[in-house]
Every structure is written in C-alpha cells, then in structure tokens.
C-alpha cells in the first residue's frame, strides 16, 4: 500500500532552511539519535542550496538476472512508475546499498523529476549521465557517477516503504535536510521539537561566533557557562 505524503508546514521549512545539518546532528545527538547522517551523500554539483522536504523513498536490492533487465523498465513497479508517483516538494531518498558501479538514474529520469518539481534526489549510490543530470537542474546528492545503468547492479523493488540509505533508517514522511555537509534525517515524530531546539541552538552559536570574533576564549563560552548564558539571554532581550 502506497504511503501518502503528508503536507509539510511552510514555517517548518523556513526554519529548517536556515539551520545547518551540522547543528541538526548535534540537536539529534542530544536526544539520543546518533545515526542520522546518510553516508556518501555528497553534492553532485558545488553550490547546491540547503533543502528541506518529506522523504519519498525508493528501494533497490542486488541485481538478479531474471529481474534486473532493460525490459523491467516497462513494468508497473519500476523507477518510471515511482517517478510519476512523486508529488511536488519531496526529497527522494534512494536506497542503492552503496553500489557505485551502476547509476540509479540518468538525465532523462532526472529531467522528469525536475519537471514534477521534486526538491532533490538523495542516494548512497551513483547516477549516470553526470553532466546531463546536472543540466536538468535537479539537485542531487550521491557518491558520484558511473556509466552502467541501474540493472547492471541493482533490482528496483518498490517506493514509499522503509529503506536504509547511507546506513540510516528512513521511513516515508520523515523529514530530510540536506546541504554541503550531506543529508540528515529528522524522524517525523520529533520534527517540531527538533526544529525549535535547532533554531535556538543556531541563534546561540551565532552569538558565540560573534564573541570568538571579538577575541573571547573558548572555555566557558563554548559550551557557555552560567555567566555566558546570562549574557546571551541579555543580548537576545536587547535585540527584541
């Protein structure tokens, strides 16, 4: 059964778009979640924007010769059908099991995703037609590119079910934030709490950076002791 994509509050998107993935990993660590950064998710093109969106998952398994064939691209369950099921604004998270010698998508499939206003493609695998994929304008985070098609090393199984991408468990409707440091997962149930705490931490670290630029020493400042916490709060009240 296909999992419907839940709407994402525009205010949450705006808040998280201003928070680095580095900050998010720290906030999630404080909540006991250590494994939220998807390994191998590097920007295909430098300068891609920080993006926020619901996870729309794709699952691949190892290639099996009777299933992973060019003919399978026309099956009802195929990457083509999955793309047509993608709503606007999602971040596609493709579990390619870290395979780097078969590109999961090429320029034509990425062009269709861009046309459907998919926010981004995240995978622990690779894409093919690298220059063509970049030309589509679809932001992609992956391990690079390779010439062979997906069926040379992978079998596509389904979309919108739990997957493992870069060693991280990703469920449909979890939220993904991705920037130059890679992709970070926020569990759906923790979204509002994490967004609020991350915004506060980002504000505090901005103040700490300003103090460092003034020449302040780190002990007692980062992390702040009671005195510096009070100074920080006073500076916020003054701005308010």
What does this structure look like?
The chain folds into two domains: 10-188, Ribonuclease E inhibitor RraA/RraA-like (Glucose Oxidase, domain 1, 3-Layer(bba) Sandwich), CATH 3.50.30; 193-239, no CATH class. The strands form two sheets. Strands 1, 2, 3, 4, 5, 6, 7, 10 and 11 form a nine-stranded mixed sheet that branches. A two-stranded antiparallel sheet has the order 8-9. It starts with 9 loop residues before the first helix and ends with a helix. It is built from seven helices and eleven strands. By secondary structure, it is an alpha/beta fold. The model has no long low-confidence stretch (mean pLDDT 94). The chain is elongated, with a radius of gyration of 20 Å. The chain has helices at 10-17, 21-30, 79-84, 107-115, 130-136, 191-213, 226-239; strands at 37-38, 42-43, 51-62, 91-95, 120-123, 140-142, 154-159, 163-165, 168-170, 175-179, 182-186. The longest helix is centred in the C-terminal third of the chain and has 23 residues, at 191-213.
Produce the secondary structure layout:
Elements: H1 10-17, H2 21-30, E1 37-38, E2 42-43, E3 51-62, H3 79-84, E4 91-95, H4 107-115, E5 120-123, H5 130-136, E6 140-142, E7 154-159, E8 163-165, E9 168-170, E10 175-179, E11 182-186, H6 191-213, H7 226-239
Parallel strand pairs: 3-4, 4-5, 5-6
Antiparallel strand pairs: 1-11, 2-6, 3-7, 3-10, 8-9, 10-11
Helix pairs in contact: 2-6, 4-5
In brief:
The chain is about 30% helix and about 20% strand.
Elements, N to C (H/E): HHEEEHEHEHEEEEEEHH
Overall number of domains: 2
The overall strand count is 11
Please tell me the CATH architecture of the largest domain by its name: 3-Layer(bba) Sandwich
Q: Unreliable runs, pLDDT <50, ≥5 residues?
A: none
Q: Radius of gyration in whole Å, from Cα?
A: 20 Å
> Largest sheet at a glance?
9 strands, mixed
Name the beta content range: 15-25%
Q: What's the total helix number?
A: 7
CATH homologous superfamily assignment of the largest domain: Ribonuclease E inhibitor RraA/RraA-like
Examine the coordinates and then state which fold CATH places here, giving the name of the CATH topology of the largest domain: Glucose Oxidase, domain 1
Could you give the distance between the termini? 49 Å
Q: What's the CATH class label of the largest domain?
A: Alpha Beta
Shape: elongated
- Output mean pLDDT: 94
Structural class computed from helices and strand pairing: alpha/beta
> Into which percent range does the helicity of residues fall?
25-40%
